[in-house]
Predict the 3D structure of the following.
Amino acid sequence: MVLEVAVLYVREGEETQFENDFLIAGACIRSVKGYLGHSLQKCLEQKNKYLLMVNWESLTDHTEGFRGSVAYLDWKNALHHYYDPFPVVEHYSPVVEGSP
């Protein structure tokens, strides 16, 4: 499994509309091969800052499969205009996992 992580800075004042559009855009990413789930978290200290985490079966499912798909164009059109600056996207693989 691969975890995609991006810190998203949304233009101030557009947070509510971004969250609404993100709910709709979620259908785009769910339809892609290798998608395992995602989470969008809102920062408590900075109201226009979010953390996006997406689980993929493999790196190429995200970097080639999703980014090369029509679904990505729909995702991009729905969300990319909110970001300032444009986010850096990184990928992680598990080293240690725990539970309570």
